């Protein structure tokens, strides 16, 4: 279907941006992947595009330190630095955190933000804070549970229900949650379909 067709086309890295004035022209539909450090943003982009090293992923929280733009057909895909703990100098972290927040609150062509939450842990206060920022900026966002392959049966419903409840308090949130694993590929086609449906 549409999602598979779209993601069969080549995704290309465009640029890494370190300041708002470095953003490319806002002449295309844009989607971004936001979430706490290490939640699996870069890995999800690689899974969606089926290109292992396209977005750099690693086990070190704070791997992605720039706002990275990729082009796919009529879309910009944007890999964001994470929020929360990062394994990097405080001054540097503060800079990229400020940029990430400015980006989320001030990008005219941002059609949808995908907000990634680790399925094992569910939403944290800092996720709620980012959701408030998106509400204020009127950026529609959709939650994606990541690392579904790692969640214990005992935590699965609890973390999903907690996320549902959190989303219900945010006017900019879509109620539908996409459950994914970049490891097994679960939910990846579903998410491709959601993205292909944006216009
Ligand atoms: P930052 O750029 O540091 O904010 O992290 P990120 O959100 O981009 O996370 P990244 O994609 O770099 O992944 C972090 C770690 O989680 C890596 O070791 C990945 O291999 C692992 N990971 C990501 N997605 C999954 C998944 O679905 N399942 C499993 N088991 N591991 C995953
Ligand atoms: Mg990353």
Question: What distance separates the N and C termini?
Answer: 16 Å
Topology as a string of helices (H) and strands (E)? HEEHEEHEHEHEH
CATH superfamily: P-loop containing nucleotide triphosphate hydrolases
Query: What is the makeup of the main sheet?
Result: 7 strands, mixed
Q: At the first level of CATH, what is the class?
A: Alpha Beta
Helix/strand structural class = alpha/beta
Enumerate the spans where pLDDT stays under 50 for 5 or more consecutive residues. Answer: none
* Strand elements, count: 7
Strand arrangement within the widest β-sheet reads: 1-3-4-2-5-6-7
Helicity range of the residues?
A: 25-40%
Total of DSSP H or I helical runs spanning 4+ residues: 6
Give the bound compounds. Answer: guanosine-5'-triphosphate, magnesium ion
**What oligomeric arrangement do these chains adopt?**
single chain
Supply Rg.
15 Å
Number of domains: 1
Q: What would the principal axes of the Cα set say about the shape?
A: globular
CATH topology: Rossmann fold
CATH architecture: 3-Layer(aba) Sandwich
Our estimate of the beta-strand percent is: 15-25%
Mean pLDDT over the residues = 96
Keywords: Cell cycle, Cell division, GTP-binding, Magnesium, Metal-binding, Nucleotide-binding, Septation
Family: Belongs to the TRAFAC class TrmE-Era-EngA-EngB-Septin-like GTPase superfamily. EngB GTPase family.
GO biological process, one term: division septum assembly
GO molecular function, one term: metal ion binding
């Amino acid at each position: 279907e549409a999602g598979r067709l779209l993601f069969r086309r080549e995704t290309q890295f465009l640029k890494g941006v370190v300041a708002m004035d470095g953003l490319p022209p806002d002449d295309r539909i844009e989607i971004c992947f936001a979430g706490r450090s290490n939640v699996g943003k870069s890995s999800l982009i690689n899974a969606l595009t089926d290109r292992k090293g396209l977005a750099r992923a690693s086990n070190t929280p704070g791997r992605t330190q720039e706002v990275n733009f990729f082009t796919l057909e009529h879309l910009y895909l944007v890999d964001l630095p994470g929020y929360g703990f990062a394994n990097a100098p405080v001054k540097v972290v503060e800079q990229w955190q400020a940029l990430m927040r400015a980006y989320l609150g001030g990008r005219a062509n941002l059609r949808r933000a995908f907000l990634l939450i680790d399925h094992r842990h569910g939403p944290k206060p800092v996720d709620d804070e980012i959701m408030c920022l998106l509400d204020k900026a009127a950026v529609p966002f959709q939650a994606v549970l990541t690392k579904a392959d790692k969640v214990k049966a005992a935590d699965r419903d609890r973390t999903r229900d907690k996320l549902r409840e959190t989303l219900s308090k945010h006017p900019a949130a879509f109620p539908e949650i996409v459950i994914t694993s970049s490891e097994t590929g679960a939910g990846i086609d579903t998410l491709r379909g959601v993205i292909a449906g944006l216009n």
